[in-house]
Amino acid sequence: MYLYGPVPSRRLGVSLGLDVVPRKTCSLNCVYCQLGPTARPTLERRRFFDPEAFFVELQEKAPHLPPIDYATFSGSGEPMLNADLGGLVRGVKKILHRPVCVITNGTLTTDPAVRRDLAEADLLLPSLDAASQEVFLRVNRPARGLVIADIIAGLAELKRESRGLFHLEILLVRGLNDSEDELSLLRAAVGRIGPDELHLNTVVRPPADSSARPVTPERLNEIAGTFEVRTRIIADYAGPVTRARALDLIAEIEAYLLRRPATTADLAAMLGRDERAVQGALKDLAAEGKVELVHRDGKVFYRRKGNGS
Ligand code: SF4
User: Fold this and answer.
1) pLDDT 10s digit of each residue in the chain, 309 long?
2) CA–CA distances in Å: residue 164 to residues 48, 99, 118, 276
3) Is the CB of 74 under 6 A from ligand 1?
4) Ligand 1: which residue has its CA nearest to atom 6?
5) Residue nearest to atom 1 of ligand 1 (CA)
6) Are both 44 and 88 inside the same structural domain?
7) Is 36 in the pocket of ligand 1 (CB under 6 A)?
8) CATH code, domain carrying 37
9) Ligand 1: distance of its center to the CA of 29 in Å?
10) Is the C-beta atom of 104 inside 6 A of ligand 1?
11) For residue 140, how far is its CA from the centre of ligand 1 (angstroms)?
């Protein structure tokens, strides 16, 4: 299954998810990852499936889709690690005639071939959580050989070469990348990259490393005021009411929880369903042993069993 949703998203309106790498195939092992730890961070781009099978699934689903704002490459890992990404982006545009977004950790943008693939997208949402190598190693725990200075240069090149919008995300983890020294380096990096928008986030869902803590809303607000580009705080879900209706609530919830934990209220908002209906579906999934509860910061999250730590 390569497609999930559509789901509403804070940044994308109604978005059809396109998942093009096996679960947790990633070049990083971020402390805050909501998918759990990466067993072996990798830099190897590979063909994971026949693109034809992907296009067949998309063509079958296309006539039944509600209106979407974006088709979005993200999901269970880093989409840049799919060696067919450029062709997949072009094919999706041809089939859906909708804007395409790629959510990426940006680590392979040092490679001109990767930048060519990404430049085809209408919207790029790369992330950058550190500007010094020391903090990069602590927050993102990268595959061997990745150097943050090179990645910043790659992101600046990508911004220059891409035809679509470029919104950079920084996720702040209390005590790890929110020091004045690191923020000063991040401001310089953002100035060099020149994104159309900067999005600030923090740890709001159960992370891979349970010691990863969020920065406070006040601190996030204060930090947002120090960047010289248009900056939005995206830490809380505040998306529009969804137009998408899940056809099969249990299957949609299951597919969503495979990718990230969520509260009942999150799921109800994302799937455009009544909270009581979502609660009923979660009860069924719990009875089947498919989901488990995680308590964090006074909230109850549901997680697909077997997902991460
Ligand atoms: S947060 Fe994204 S980039 Fe970081 S480990 Fe998870 S999937 Fe990879």
Assistant:
1) 688 888 877 788 889 999 999 999 999 999 999 889 999 999 999 999 999 999 999 999 899 888 899 999 997 899 999 999 999 999 999 999 999 999 999 999 999 999 999 998 999 999 999 999 999 999 999 999 999 999 999 999 999 999 999 999 999 999 999 999 999 999 999 999 999 999 999 998 888 888 999 999 999 999 999 999 999 999 863 333 333 343 467 878 888 888 788 888 888 877 767 777 788 788 888 878 888 888 887 788 888 886 543
2) 26, 10, 10, 40
3) no
4) 33
5) 33
6) yes
7) no
8) 3.20.20.70
9) 6
10) no
11) 8
Rounded Cα distance, 289 and 284, in Å: 9
User: In which domain, by residue range, is 178 found?
Assistant: 3-244
Indicate if 270 and 240 belong to the same structural domain: no
What is the domain-level CATH number for residue 306? 1.10.10.10
Instruction: Establish whether residue 78 lines the binding site of ligand 1, counting it when its CB lies within 6 angstroms of any ligand atom.
Output: yes
Residue 136 sits in the same domain as residue 263: no
Asked if residue 103 has its Cβ within 6 Å of ligand 1, the reply is: no
DSSP code per residue over 219-280: HHHHHHTT-SS-EEE-SS--PPPP----SSHHHHHHHHHHH--B-HHHHHHHHT--HHHHHH
Please indicate, yes or no, whether residues 116 and 232 belong to a single structural domain of this protein. yes
Q: Which of 244, 265, 285 is the last residue of a domain?
A: 244
Q: Are residues 91 and 233 in the same domain?
A: yes
Q: Answer yes or no: are the C-beta atoms of 99 and 141 closer than 8 Å.
A: no
Q: Could you tell me if 254 and 238 lie in one domain?
A: no
Cα of 274 to ligand 1 centre, how many Å? Answer: 31
User: What is the crossing angle of helices 275-287 and 249-259, to 10°?
Assistant: 70
Residues 98, 232, single domain; the answer is: yes
Ligand 1 centroid to Cα of residue 23, in Å, is: 11
Q: Is 30 in the pocket of ligand 1 (CB under 6 A)?
A: yes
